[in-house]
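--- STAGE predict ---
source: upstream dedup step, 1 unique chain passed
mode: sequence only
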Amino acid sequence: MTKEKEKETWEIPNFDKYDIYKLDDKLVINEKPKPKNYVVGCTLINIALLALNVCVFLSTKILVTTIIQVVK
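--- STAGE serialize ---
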């Protein structure tokens, strides 16, 4: 059997993915947290709140017109 030689591969790291800073004369390298996407959740919450506002407005309008009819 022949032994295959492993090739050394060197990759240049993507430094945009890491926070690099100096702390107590030591170099600290931390991976940056992934940005979270809140757009979909916020949109759904906004639609639900808008629907709730419409329901409250309509119920208030119905209540006011009922009270006006009763008072007359």
